[in-house]
């Protein structure tokens, strides 16, 4: 009996070691591209093309960053991107939560049928509507402005409406009823009860929105032409076209473009992961 | 469970079913009106318009000209590139989606074994999933560089001379699949949450009945996770088929069109050649292809997606 217990725990120890080993190797593989990025960004160009390549830079050139970032007006691209991201984010959080409230906390005819339409648009590849959308914005004389990037966010985003609705549905209805009996208006319930109770999911929507619009390349590519309107994604693409093989500069700029996302992720990862889980699992 | 019953069930308030109140209905419509307006202006109308446009030849500058089915004839019969692009896009998806699911599940299962440092591992594995777009594409272009890139350098350490990746007709698609595997953590956190929600008494009962590790995986874990896997599969198809930025930045469709994904071709026709009618036909065919794939997946669901017996109301 005792020998069996010992052998079992030995087996458990071995399997634990294997689990840690696999996870550790996996982590190294996941982190290596980022290490490679940092390492390349700090090398002098002559070392970038040294064979065999160095995993760690033998000579560190910190000025690579300043040099690369001043070759194009990245400060302007940064301001443009921040402007677009902020107004998209505000629109998506505000409008999607208003719409989601009606879909979850109010009772009205046609609600479920309409919500199925919301779900269906979630599945729609945006490219089907892109060409007429381009023509609409062209007719409105809005091509090469930020409007085509920001305006659609103020009509609510089906994905966030879905996410917020699912969350609002988990609140108890008794609370709403009590507030209404105490003389609170329906909209007051939304403003004073539902929204304050939903801070984690609102934060998740804000972070998703930030992440999406920060990374977005396709829509800026189609709607923006002038260099003074470029976002960071477009600027990075322009930089790549001009300095195609200066990998140290390219890595430096790319890393700087990624950095705000990484920083936000580290500070908000709990909300972030909960949000992802909520969308994918519920 | 159909979508309609799912929605109805979630929204059921049997206890409060005292008829609709007029004020509430007015407020509700006011609150959903931005979405309704957006749906009509930016979804419904453009969909109809792009279907209509697909029967015209139009370069934006001159007046559109009716050409009947000519755009579709060109798409399916004359121009070889759309079907080639669709083929490689589907091939890429068929490789990328299952691999991401398998690796995502495997990592989630490893993390779900009561280990220390779960939060640290989860952060590391999830980190690449938040990064995407141009910066990531440029990074991977450098990683795949045949002489000085990270991947071939790492392969040389174990004695393998790697291919030219992005410069190779054969290896360019596998390169894209490898790149997408980097963000495997996105699905992983969802599977992990699913695994943590499986009641442990199921495993205890199975152990008492003498089930081995494989039996527990295939009889308990996977069936319990199947709705989550199914959801990831559907969203994976829609997301993966739309690959664009990476090919635009890294290969521009090359070499010799071997990474010409469908959206890149659509983009070129619409916004470089200004063939708006032809591009609209391309867009509709793409939409129908994705719809077809999704419907096929839905049809298979009843054979492998396991929904728990639903008892009672959720809320």
Biggest interface found? A-B, 99 and 103 residues
CATH architecture of the largest domain in chain A: Orthogonal Bundle
Shape of chain A: flat
The CATH architecture designation of chain B is Orthogonal Bundle
Shape of chain B: globular
Please describe the biggest sheet of chain B, giving its number of strands, its sense, and whether it closes into a barrel. 2 strands, antiparallel
Radius of gyration of chain A: 25 Å
> Low-confidence parts of chain A lasting 5 or more residues at pLDDT below 50?
1-5
Descriptive notes:
The complex is a heterodimer of chains A (282) and B (315). With 282 residues, chain A is an all-alpha fold. Chain A contains 14 helices and no strands. Chain A has helices spanning 2-42, 45-48, 63-69, 74-104, 111-122, 127-139, 147-150, 158-169, 173-181, 186-197, 199-215, 218-223, 232-242, 247-281. Chain A starts with a helix and ends with a helix. Chain B is mainly α and 315 residues long. Chain B contains 14 helices and two strands; from the N terminus they run ααββαααααααααααα. Chain B has helices at residues 3-10, 22-53, 70-78, 81-111, 118-130, 134-143, 150-157, 172-181, 185-196, 200-208, 213-241, 245-250, 262-272, 276-304; strands at residues 56-57, 65-66. The radius of gyration of chain B is 24 Å and the shape is globular. In chain B, 37% of the residues are buried. Chains A and B meet through helix 1, helix 4, helix 5, helix 6 and helix 8 of A and helix 1, helix 2, helix 4, helix 5 and helix 6 of B.
Topology:
The complex is a heterodimer of chains A (about 280) and B (about 325).
Chain A: H1 2-42, H2 45-48, H3 63-69, H4 74-104, H5 111-122, H6 127-139, H7 147-150, H8 158-169, H9 173-181, H10 186-197, H11 199-215, H12 218-223, H13 232-242, H14 247-281
Helix pairs in contact in A: 1-14, 3-14, 4-8, 4-11, 4-13, 5-8, 9-10, 11-14, 13-14
Chain B: H1 3-10, H2 22-53, E1 56-57, E2 65-66, H3 70-78, H4 81-111, H5 118-130, H6 134-143, H7 150-157, H8 172-181, H9 185-196, H10 200-208, H11 213-241, H12 245-250, H13 262-272, H14 276-304
Antiparallel strand pairs in B: 1-2
Helix pairs in contact in B: 2-14, 3-14, 4-8, 4-9, 4-11, 4-13, 5-9, 9-11, 11-14, 13-14
């Amino acid at each position: 009996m005792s020998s069996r217990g010992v052998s079992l725990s030995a087996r458990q120890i071995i399997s634990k070691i294997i689990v840690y080993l696999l996870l550790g190797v996996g982590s190294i593989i996941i982190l290596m591209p980022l290490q490679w990025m940092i390492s390349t960004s700090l090398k002098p160009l002559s070392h970038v093309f040294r064979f065999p390549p160095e995993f760690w830079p033998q000579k560190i050139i910190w000025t690579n960053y300043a040099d690369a970032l001043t070759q194009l007006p990245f400060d302007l691209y940064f301001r443009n991107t921040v402007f677009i991201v902020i107004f998209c984010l505000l629109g998506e959080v505000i409008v999607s939560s208003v719409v989601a409230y009606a879909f979850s906390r109010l009772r009205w005819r046609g609600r479920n049928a309409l919500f199925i339409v919301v779900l269906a648009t979630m599945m729609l590849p945006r490219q089907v509507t892109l060409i007429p959308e381009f023509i609409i914005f062209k007719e409105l004389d809005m091509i090469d402005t930020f409007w085509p990037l920001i305006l659609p966010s103020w009509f609510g985003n089906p994905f966030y409406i879905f996410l917020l609705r699912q969350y609002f549905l988990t609140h108890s209805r008794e609370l709403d009823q009590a507030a209404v009996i105490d003389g609170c208006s329906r909209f007051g319930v939304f403003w004073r009860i539902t929204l304050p109770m939903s801070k984690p999911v609102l934060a998740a929507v804000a972070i998703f929105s930030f992440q999406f619009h920060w990374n977005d390349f396709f829509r800026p590519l189609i709607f923006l032409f002038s260099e003074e309107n470029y976002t960071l994604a477009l600027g990075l693409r322009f930089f790549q076209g001009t300095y195609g093989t200066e990998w140290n500069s390219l890595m430096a700029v790319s890393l700087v473009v990624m950095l705000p996302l990484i920083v936000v992720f580290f500070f908000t990862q709990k909300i972030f992961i909960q949000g992802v889980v909520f969308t994918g699992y519920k | 469970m159909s979508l309609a019953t799912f929605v109805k069930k979630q929204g059921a308030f049997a206890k409060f079913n005292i008829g609709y109140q007029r004020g509430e209905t007015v407020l509700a419509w006011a609150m959903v009106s931005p979405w309704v307006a957006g749906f009509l202006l930016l979804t419904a109308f453009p969909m109809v318009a792009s279907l209509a446009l697909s029967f015209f030849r139009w370069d934006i500058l001159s007046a559109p000209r009716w050409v009947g089915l000519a755009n579709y004839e060109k798409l399916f019969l004359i121009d070889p590139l759309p079907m080639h692009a669709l083929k490689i896009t589907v091939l890429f998806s068929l490789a990328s989606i299952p691999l991401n699911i398998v690796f995502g599940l495997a990592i989630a299962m490893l993390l779900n074994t009561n280990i220390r440092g779960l939060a640290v591992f989860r952060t590391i594995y999830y980190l690449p999933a938040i990064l995407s777009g141009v910066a990531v594409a440029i990074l991977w272009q450098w990683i795949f560089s045949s002489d000085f890139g990270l991947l071939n350098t790492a392969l040389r350490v174990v004695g393998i001379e790697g291919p030219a990746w992005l410069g190779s007709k054969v290896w360019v698609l596998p390169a894209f699949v490898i790149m997408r595997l980097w963000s495997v953590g996105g699905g992983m956190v969802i599977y992990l949450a699913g695994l943590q929600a499986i009641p442990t008494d199921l495993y205890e009962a199975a152990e008492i009945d003498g089930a081995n590790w494989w039996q527990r995986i295939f009889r308990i874990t996977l069936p319990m996770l199947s709705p989550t896997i199914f959801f990831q599969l559907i969203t994976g198809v829609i997301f993966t088929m739309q690959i664009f930025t990476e090919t635009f930045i890294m290969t521009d469709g090359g070499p010799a069109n071997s990474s010409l994904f469908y959206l890149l071709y659509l983009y070129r026709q619409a916004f470089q050649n200004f063939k708006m009618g032809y591009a609209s036909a391309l867009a509709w065919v793409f939409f129908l292809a994705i719809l077809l794939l999704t419907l096929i997946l839905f049809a298979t669901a009843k054979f492998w997606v396991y929904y728990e017996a639903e008892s009672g109301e959720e809320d």
